[in-house]
Amino acid sequence: MSFPHFQTEKFSFLPFGSIRPAGWLKEQMQRDLEGFVGNLDRIVPELINDPVYGEGRLRKNSRVKDLGNLKDGDAEGDEQYKWWNSETRSNWWDGYARNVMMLDDKYGIEKVHAYVTAILATQDEDGYIGIYDEEMRYNFDSENGELWSKATLYRGLLAYYEYTNDQKVFDALERAVQNVMDHYPVNASHPFHTGTAFNGGVAHGLTFTDILERLYFHTGDNKYREYALFLYQDFSDSAQSEGDAQPSNILNPHYKLKSHGVHTFEHIRALIIAYSASGEKKLADALAIYLKRVEKATTVSGGAIGDEWIAERDADATHTGYEYCSLQELLDSYCLLLQKTGNAETGDQIEKIFYNAAQGARNPHHSCIAYLKTDNSFEMLGTRNGETEPERIQTRYKYSPAHQDVAVCCNPNAGRISPCFIQSSWMKEDDTSLVATLLMPNTLKTVLNGVNIQIEIITDYPLKNEFEIRITQPVSSVFKLKIRKPGWVNNVITSENYVMQDEFMVIERSFYPRDQVQFSFETDARIRTDNNNARYFTYGALVYALPIHADEIIGKTYVGNFRDITYKPVSSVRFAFKRKVKPLYKNGKIQTSLISDLTGKPEKVELIPMGKTILRQVTFKC
Asked: For 562-576, what is each residue's pLDDT tens digit?
């Protein structure tokens, strides 16, 4: 993926709540809300209801919490388990709140109102909102979750403010962030200098830059950008167990990514924000190099290595897995990159992650997700396609509504990914331009040049490549409608007059109070090659897979009949690529011939979108 250096930001985000899901995407989110996304507080109530931000704040004598997870083989130490619930709790509430607000779920919105009110009641007189008692806060020389717990909490509060325009919430957040800046003053403190031992929570805390970037979005106050730059610089100059994003490592041509994947991918955002704040060529160059390294660690479905450390590996469809947390964080980082650069290719990468890796790690029949998943998923019995890991009991390769035996982190993030994807689907370029950056069924309500505009996209994309855009406004108005053209498009069919600009279709005309734009994309079934010289098949935005029949095995059962599920393949037959066979797309499937390793002969097969599969083969060796 190319990275154009940017001096000014190409697009601007819209406030949360401006864009709502429609069509199949809305239906999926509603099912999620009825499923584990809406019920995690019932599935693991002891974790979600932990009063760690209030009367349960951490003190010097606080004991390590029993989170119900298996710790055998985890070498990170016990200190992290003290702050873990803040991540679980806040990320779940963040995702839950965004889902109910996007779906206008009245019961859920009232529940979120009560939650926000309770959180604001924990704010101290000096503005502090966090998980530590006065004797501990801002005073660490080892692993801690001070900034990380704030980042996960404040992100959800900001979304709530943007949806409600409740000024007291924004005022509370500004006071809370000022409290951080007062206790970790710019260039006079070292929030990331916490020794040389494992400090994953400290490294996660670099995502506090998310909060600062969003406050800058609302206020235009450069102090937030300057503070974000300070945090990145202090992180860069400190000893970090998760240091892939430090410039000294990025600019070292011999360095290979090795950190916990989710850290590596969320830190893309901190680097983007630091470059935005400074304009330094060194950081621009570092960002370009970093993105190339991430690309090498990414499979054909968009799943970047996160099982759980990258460990200097390149992506492999069978032997490297991806964590659902990593999918969310990489998608979020690419959304920020798209906003800054306007690079259409970045939009392709975002859609690849969501429509393939993320959909393919959901269970299509039950409300649960895979903590870890591979593109070629030959079994889901706990381990990575049957591979053993020394000194670690691996249970992550299964489907669960919670994954409490490992960590309740991926399921909360699974609730965040759809709202994040939708929120970035429309942006503004200026007061006369609306940009459809990501393609999906949705509804946008915004004001453009003083006119209230509603735009609905009616589509079954990505299963079909046909679109109808319905525009509703009180009076006719002239504006630009820009639509990203994916890189796989052969031809655009529309009656509209348009020009192409940086891979965006630009339609500029007077739009009536009730108007519409119709277009479709032509493409064909394609054979592609991965970085291991294996072949795989695509049609449009979707990667296709050969489904593998499996026996379903029920494991632990939770409240409401939520349950863990593993899958054992019925057959161990694998297939290889057959040359000189042209694939045919028909009725949502790709028809082709592959060579069976059982018979050595070609067989006619039908491939389906990998998002509809559980066990599957995606890549085929020549």
From this structure: 999 999 999 999 999
